[in-house]
Design goal:
heterodimer; A: mainly alpha; three-stranded antiparallel sheet; 6 strands; 9% strand; elongated; B: alpha+beta; 4 strands
Chain lengths: 240, 162
């Protein structure tokens, strides 16, 4: 197998290869969530107790539901932007707006429902999330005077970073790397169509700059080479 | 026990029964359905002031409303102290009453200074019924009461401002 082979793309059927849908675990996780979740008196009481506030946002309710359903991998795999996208797939609903809650008697006059109104995250939404989790990790990357040459290596590989390569200040280098990565994902220049692969870009960048991880640099370079084919990229053979 | 805290210890509480506002993206507890509001038209002017400053907090852990007598007393005292400053502005016979030693002294009598704040509360209770308006104006026939209060406050200042 060639090191530049995209097994996932080759495994897609003809129609999928034409359409180029974005592949994401988020839709799998969204599918695992119930279509309807009933908030009864005890659940409401627990929610208010845990928040300590008279205001409950849909996000806090969804978080609580995830913890009760023990969907641990959900919390581990998604960042705040992805969670926001999932949250928008749900809406709160009551049959009648005259609803009473009695703490003493643990009584709710009618149940409140959290309903899944969207079954699948659209490609337009997933496109905006591509690479974001990886970008967050680059925001926290340690760009210092000790790893400026590695930052230059990354910028040469990313391309269009001449000003960052020339500068001697690491703050400016950091800014250039971040802007370039943001542009790559905003326009999806590299045509990455797999969410998890897109997120790895940021992790590899940080891993090489901070720790000099050669495997990370190798992965980035091979990914960059694959972009020259003009094909969408769904997977690649990673070096660890 | 202190005067205001004594008056603030026998309140009831609102029942923990709420109307909810449910929108597509949030749930909010509105005001309690049977909200407890103590009366502010009793015959005791000090009790009325304390009642007006009643504040209760909902404890989400216990599911009950609670209140703090000390917090209510402190809020009431702050109101009384400010009102006494209005009184001084109205009745100190000088061009700039806010620059006088007495005004500045009263401004610094905080609730924790028990020896000074408790008499101040009682003086307010004494003089407040004579007030005709928000500016603490009194009738000519009642000016003597205002002068009495100022004399007592001056004596307090001389005693404690050493």
């Amino acid at each position: 197998m060639s090191v530049f082979q995209d097994k996932k793309f080759e495994g897609l059927d003809y129609v999928s290869q034409l359409i180029e849908p974005i592949d994401s675990q988020l839709n799998v996780l969204l599918g695992e969530l119930p279509d309807e979740f009933i908030i009864d008196a005890q659940t409401l009481r627990n929610l208010l107790h845990s928040r300590g506030s008279s205001y409950l946002s849909k996000g806090s309710i969804l978080n609580y539901i995830l913890s009760t359903l023990h969907l641990q991998n959900f919390a581990e795999l998604i960042n705040s932007a992805s969670f926001d996208a999932i949250e928008k797939c749900f809406e709160l609903h009551v049959d009648d707006n005259n609803i009473i809650f009695d703490f003493d008697k643990n009584f709710l006059s009618q149940p409140i429902k959290l309903i899944k109104v969207t079954q699948n995250l659209d490609d337009k939404i997933l496109e905006k999330l591509l690479g974001q989790e990886g970008l967050y990790t680059v925001y926290n990357c340690d760009f210092s005077q000790y790893n400026m040459s590695r930052a230059n290596d990354i910028m040469e590989m990313l391309g269009e970073c001449e000003s960052g390569i020339k500068t001697k200040t690491y703050r400016k280098k950091r800014s250039v790397v971040l802007h370039r990565l943001e542009a790559i994902f905003r326009n999806n220049e590299w045509k990455i169509k797999d969410m998890e692969l897109a997120n790895k870009v940021g992790y590899w960048v940080r891993s090489y700059i901070e720790d000099g991880n050669i495997a990370a640099l190798s992965n980035l370079c091979r990914l960059k080479v694959m972009t020259h084919t003009g094909n969408p990229i769904y997977s690649m053979k990673e070096v660890k | 026990m202190r005067i205001l805290e004594e008056l603030a210890k026998n309140f009831s509480n609102s029942g923990p029964c709420f109307a909810l506002t449910v929108l597509k993206d949030s749930i909010m507890l509105d005001d309690p359905i049977n909200r407890y509001i103590p009366p502010t038209d009793t015959s005791d002017i000090l009790q009325n002031a304390v009642n007006a400053h009643y504040r209760e907090i909902f404890d989400f852990h216990d599911g009950k409303f609670t209140y703090s007598s000390k917090s209510i007393a402190e809020s009431t005292y702050y109101y009384i102290n400010r009102d006494m400053l209005v009184f001084l502005k109205a009745h100190l016979a000088c061009k700039a009453p806010t620059n006088t030693k007495l005004y500045k002294y009263i401004d610094h009598v905080t609730y924790d200074k028990v020896q000074q704040s408790e008499p101040l509360i009682l003086l307010w209770k004494y003089i407040k019924p004579f007030s005709m308006n928000d500016n603490f104006q009194v009738k000519e026939t009642n000016k003597v009461h205002a002068n009495n209060v100022i004399a007592i406050l001056e004596a307090m200042r001389e005693k404690y401002e050493k």
